[in-house]
Amino acid sequence: MAFFIRELSKFFNDELGYSIAPESIQKDHIRFKIKRCPFAEGKSPSLCSIMQGIVGGLGFLFFGYSKIIQVSGPEQAPNPCCVDLYFSPSPELEKKVGLEYSKSAISLLKGEDYKFIDSQRQMRRKIILGLFSSLAYSINEKPSPKKLANKYIESLSCIPEIRLAALYLKNNESGNFNLEAQYGFPADILPLISAVTRESIGASNNDEILMAAIEDFNGHRSDIAKRLSVRSFASVRIKPHNETIGVLTIGWKSTFPVSPETREAIRASCTMLGTAIDNSRLYFELETAFVNNISVLNNLVNTIDQFSNDHSKRVAELARSIAAEMDLSEDDIILAYDAGLIHDIGKIKVPAEILNKSEPLTKQEFELIKEHPKTGANLITPISSLQRVVPAVLYHHERLDGSGYPEGLSGDLIPLHARIIAVADVYDAMMNKRAYRDAASEADVIQEIINESGVKYDPIVVGALMAVLNNKQISSNETLCKLETKEDKSISA
User: Fold this and answer.
1) CA nearest 356: which of 445, 440, 441, 437?
2) DSSP β-bridge partners for residue 167
3) Which residues contact 469 (CB under 8 A, 6 or more apart)?
4) SS3 at position 437
5) What are phi and psi of 80, to 5 degrees?
6) Rounded to the nearest 5 degrees, what angle is found at the Cα of 189, between the Cα atoms of 187 and 195?
7) 470 burial type by CB count under 10 A (0-12 exposed, 13-18 middle, 19+ buried)
8) Residue 233 per-residue DSSP state
9) What is the mean pLDDT of each run of 10 residues along the chain (493 residues)?
């Protein structure tokens, strides 16, 4: 009996995080009190059921019979819950309600046990299928490596055997492996394990050394295991081709072997994840190249149009201020700025002699000018990161009364950001000299826009423009006043 009590206490402490001790030992039963219970962390009644089931099952294996009865609980110190383990059947014991383990009881339950095992296998298969499905859907969305990592770890968290998981990805510039996504770690630990440096890994390209270094968590492995009751760790390299680009480290709840299906699914999904991350990085590089090319074209437009004089940049800054004045979201404010920067990119197909012509345009020349919104939209549509600004670029010459181009849209059919760019564009265009006319005064420009408010231009956008201009004037006056005060003080000194 002493051996049974000692081994039971050791097993519960090492494997399940319980501290269990005998409170009283009698001829036919032992009363155990639970001094430390994971129920306090997880608040899950199933933990108590599992604990009692294991005590009863081990008692049956050791004594040939057992019955476990809840005495009190689930409670915590100073009044810990207690359970009685009976190891000798009796008529009095049969009257008590509890879990009985005997040869007759086990034989009755055998059929149900097989059903339970089968249901567990089916549940595990569903989790594994979900792991791959989640990853597949994420790939379809063309996400960044960060989003892929987060989605993958989120799926892993559904596997019951996993206590924690950390996904490190290699930074090609520094050679460090940075923590991209995690599950189960306390917030105070994260800054300590956020990166595994090249110095920690060493100069060797040996994957085993790499995984051991990452699994060490910068020397915090023991503390993590103790705090989170992690019984064992395992690492899987993420190696889509010849180079390891990441490492997945998992902390298991138990030292018991994990099912072969789960292990193989994690390995296979890591290969799939590695390929997805590789493709994502390649896609990002191509997209960056596209964006850089658009930037070059945009600068070329400003160079060809001798009178643009940073027109696009001024429109972008004014559009951003208008969007902010309208209390739009941060994303919408950024969108307004980005659309303003490239709203005239389509003019790259308009000959320089037409852009800089000082005489009135012919009908044919004006029709060519009117094509620039469509040309611009066609240029940026293939670039996914710029697709959000396509409507603003395509429709920034539309007018509320339907008199604009290229499609003659009217009213609310014109996207909001296109209406913002329209007002910012016309304000800056009239305020600056063009080949065919001189710059107008600000008073005349403002009056012209107000006259067309509600006719050609969105009155809310026009109101926001007026507020921006007033704020700018107030700010300018305050600056001037401060300069004059400073000058007066220096004269008096």
Assistant:
1) 437
2) 181, 248
3) 442, 446
4) strand
5) -65, 155
6) 115
7) exposed
8) E
9) 78 75 84 75 57 77 80 60 84 78 56 51 57 56 79 81 90 87 91 83 67 85 89 86 86 73 78 83 72 68 61 92 94 92 88 82 90 91 84 96 95 96 94 78 92 95 93 64 53 48
